[in-house]
Design brief:
This protein is α+β, with helices and mostly antiparallel strands. Helix 1 packs antiparallel against helix 2. It is globular, with a radius of gyration of 13 Å.
Length: about 110
C-alpha cells in the first residue's frame, strides 16, 4: 500500500502537471508570469518533502536552520527540489524512495 505522504505528494504533482506548471517557488509559480495561484501547493510540497522527509532524515530543525530552498521544478519528466543554501538538487522521486545521496551537503549544514 502506498504511503500517505507519497499519495499526497503525487497528488500535488499530478495537479501541477495537469495545469502545465513546471516551476514552483514560494511567491510565483513560474519565472515569466507572477501568480500566487499555486502557493498552497508549494507550501504542501515544502512540508511533505523538505520538512517531513529531508529535514527529518538529516536531523535538521525546521525552525532553526540556515538552509534555503530555492524552488521545485520539473525537467526531463522528473520533479526535483533545488536548494540555494547549501547548493544541492534532488529528484522528488529519490526523496520519496528515501535516497538522499544527492543532498549529501545537508549532512554538515
Amino acid at each position: 500500500m502506498e504511503n500517505l505522504k507519497e499519495k499526497t505528494t503525487k497528488g500535488i504533482l499530478d495537479k501541477l502537471d495537469k495545469a502545465g506548471v513546471e516551476y514552483l517557488q514560494f511567491d510565483a509559480y513560474n519565472e515569466e508570469d507572477y501568480s500566487e495561484k499555486y502557493q498552497s501547493e508549494y507550501i504542501d510540497l515544502f512540508e511533505e518533502i523538505v520538512v517531513n522527509k529531508i529535514f527529518k532524515h538529516f536531523g535538521i530543525d525546521p525552525q532553526d536552520n540556515e538552509t534555503i530552498v530555492n524552488y521545485f521544478a520539473k525537467e526531463n519528466g522528473k520533479w526535483f527540489v533545488s536548494f540555494y543554501e547549501p547548493e544541492a538538487i534532488a529528484t522528488i522521486e529519490d526523496i520519496l524512495n528515501d535516497d538522499y545521496s544527492a543532498l549529501k551537503e545537508l549532512r554538515t549544514w
